[in-house]
Design brief:
By secondary structure, this protein is α/β, with parallel strands linked by helices. It is about 50% helix and about 20% strand. Bound molecules: ligand C2E and calcium ion (2 copies). The site of one calcium ion (CA) has 5 residues, from strand 14.
Length: about 475
């Protein structure tokens, strides 16, 4: 600490002693839990590491995160949230004995430092015991509040480390536990550091892409199954960065969602999709993917209005694709926006159906027009005979609810034929057309059209496993 700060603290101590306040305690102890605060913990850990240096001793730092606290605070109030944190802190305090130390690291996380562990297994056993004890429900008045905790573990000893580095590493391990979902614990390993660095690079690239227009939209066609007519295109975003090269949306969309950049990226994609589609024949639709965070931003309806207005694109030609995770958020907020979009004339598509919870209640509670059966389902159809039956049930269910059905990820003629037989409405996939830049759209579609333009009789019985030829389907454009 610099001398000026030390002098100031001493002065503060002197004045507060006169008032009966213990400054030492205020600076080192968390007011809510009575545990050590982060800065004091770091000081202790560094001192320990200094003492143990060169003695061939391994130490462990365990970070413990409490999950779902924002939700608990929102549902039951901050007082209850604080009560839960205090209860867990007191459990932790009881567990930590001997020369081990613990602290309240952040709002919703604790840390434990174990100066001596025999090996990784011992560190893991301590982490496991800690999360089991902390993960017990907390009693509040006449109810039990469920608690979920996860841990990240970093080991010190083999190479030189300091408290800050250990905290960063335990934090990375904790985040990797959280990403896996559910409770549990993970060890830090260099691959996590590499992944964190890559994530940071992608985040920077996203910011630059917005500033310098490195994003591009590709479009993938989808067809009506019975007539083979082209129905429209799904807009799929692409990022080509000067340093990172091409980054897949599977990688950068989650980063954009986590950092909040998705709101600006989504708004850009929407305008670009409508601008491109405004040049197509007027019967063709454009489908745009929306992330859950866009519904939470408060800007979504304004963004849609703006996009339609600046591109003079009719809302009736816009399809909004959302996944089930969107409905897991604040359902009232999402429902009101979806209803407004539907009232404007947009269609609402439930994407990736068959993954996640596939909760049926969403299908009638939310104003969907269409359901998209996930690609993984279509793939499983080839190897697992029972999936065909499930597929048929999903299609029937959707029809009973007045929804249209698209099957995505269609790669083979056999899959296409089966979906045609099962009265699926639309198909999309590499078989009918890969995503292409707007400039290549017409040429690619025309080539596909030439390849597949044949008449095909309506199948009267379920197609058998025979390899059908590409000419068995007919597409018109
Ligand atoms: P999605 O919405 O499920 O899009 C379909 C993905 O499957 C696309 O991957 C597409 O290229 C791929 N695909 C299409 N047909 C086939 C096929 O026959 N076989 C196989 N193996 N794959 C096929 P892509 O373009 O990499 O996009 C991945 C995901 O990124 C999308 O999944 C979507 O969730 C997200 N995404 C893409 N563009 C946007 C966007 O503008 N906004 C948001 N929020 N998400 C987007
Ligand atoms: Ca989609
Ligand atoms: Ca999908």
């Amino acid at each position: 600490m610099d001398p000026e700060a030390t002098q100031e603290i001493e002065e503060l101590k002197r004045r507060n002693q006169q008032l009966g306040l213990d400054v030492e305690r205020l600076l080192t102890q968390d007011q809510l839990t009575g545990l050590m605060v982060r800065s004091a913990f770091i000081g202790h850990v560094d001192r320990w590491l200094g003492t143990l240096k060169g003695k061939g001793v391994q130490s462990a730092l365990i970070e413990i995160g409490i999950k779902g606290m924002p939700r608990l605070n929102a549902l039951m109030g901050r007082d209850v949230g604080d009560y839960v944190i205090s209860a867990l802190a007191s459990r932790l305090n009881q567990l930590v004995d001997g020369d081990r130390i613990c602290c309240r690291l952040d709002h919703w996380s604790f840390a434990v430092f174990v100066p001596r562990v025999a090996d990784a297994l011992e560190a893991l056993t301590i982490a496991k015991r800690t999360i089991l004890a902390l993960g017990e429900p907390v009693e509040w008045v006449d109810r039990k509040i469920p608690v979920e905790v996860a841990a990240g573990v970093a080991l010190a000893g083999t190479t030189e480390r300091d408290a800050q580095t250990l905290l960063i590493q335990a934090g990375m391990a904790l985040r990797s536990t959280a990403e896996k979902g559910g409770p549990g614990y993970s060890f830090f390993n260099p691959a996590l550091e590499k992944a964190a660095k890559r994530k940071q690079d992608v985040q920077t690239a996203l910011q630059e892409a917005l500033d310098h227009q490195y994003f591009e939209l590709h479009f993938q066609p989808y067809f009506q199954v019975t007539t083979g007519e082209l129905q429209g295109f799904e807009a799929l975003i692409r990022l080509r960065h000067p340093q990172l090269g091409s980054v897949s949306p599977g990688e950068f969309i989650p980063v954009a969602e986590e950092t909040g950049l998705i709101t600006r990226i989504g708004a850009w994609a929407l305008v670009e999709a409508c601008r491109t589609a405004a040049n197509w024949p007027p019967h063709l639709l454009v489908s745009v993917n929306f992330s859950p965070e866009q519904f939470m931003s408060g800007n979504l309806l304004t963004d849609v209005h703006n996009a339609l207005e600046v591109t003079s694109f009719p809302p009736t030609r816009l399809e909004v694709e959302i996944t089930e995770s969107t409905m897991l958020g604040d359902t009232d907020v999402v429902l009101s926006q979806l209803t407004a979009l539907r009232e404007m004339g947009c269609a609402i598509v439930m994407d990736d159906f068959g993954t996640g919870y596939s909760s049926l209640s969403y299908l009638w509670k939310f104003p969907f027009s269409k359901l998209k059966i996930d690609r993984s389902f279509i793939q499983a159809m080839d190897s697992r005979p029972q999936v065909k039956g499930m597929l048929k049930s999903i299609i029937d269910l959707a029809k009973n609810l007045g929804l249209k059905v698209t099957a995505e990820g269609i790669e083979t003629q056999k899959q296409a034929e089966l979906l045609k037989f099962q009265r699926c409405d639309y198909i999309q996939g590499y078989l009918c057309g890969r995503p292409v830049p707007a400039s290549e759209l017409a040429a690619i579609i025309m080539t596909k059209f030439a390849e597949t333009l044949r008449n095909v009789p309506e199948p009267v019985e379920e197609p058998q496993a025979k390899a059908a030829s590409a000419s068995d389907l007919r597409f018109e454009f």
